[in-house]
Amino acid sequence: MIYVYNKYNNSRLAPAGRKVNPFAFAIAFPTFFQYHARMCATQEIPPRRGSRLFKLLTLALVVVIAFSAVSLFQHRHKVNTAHRRVAVAQLDGAIGGTDSLGPWLDELRDDPYIKAVLLRIDSPGGGVTASQELFAKVRAVNAKKTVIVSMGDTAASGGYYTALGASYIMANPSTITGSIGVKMILPDFTRLMEKIGVNQNSLTSGVLKDAGSPFKELSPEERAYFQDIVTDLYEQFIADVAETRKLPLDAVRGLADGRAYTGRQAFTLGLVDGLGTFDDALDYLCAVENIDTPILIKQPEPEIPLFTRLLDALTSSLNLRLPVDWPTGNSPVFLYIF
Question: What is the largest CA-CA distance in the chain?
Answer without folding.
Answer: 118
